[in-house]
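User: tokens in, sequence out, please.
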């Protein structure tokens, strides 16, 4: 049902040698702890987000639909 799935993208712009060194040092921490934790949170919250989104879409559709006296 539907084509929704959570995705995550991270853009890191390194500035100079110190930035490259810093990113190399924290990379294992980011990839081993931070990103997996973020994806677990997203996976846990995703069903509720989809349910709320569908409810909003259904409400908007009902509002847009003309009533029986409209013509």
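Assistant: Sequence out:
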């Amino acid at each position: 049902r539907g084509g929704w799935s959570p995705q995550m993208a991270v853009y890191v712009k390194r500035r100079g040698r110190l930035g490259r060194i810093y990113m190399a040092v924290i990379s294992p921490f980011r990839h081993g702890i931070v990103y997996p934790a973020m994806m677990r949170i997203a996976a846990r919250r995703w069903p509720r987000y989809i349910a709320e989104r569908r409810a909003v879409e259904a409400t908007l559709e009902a509002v847009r639909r003309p009533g029986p006296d409209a013509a």
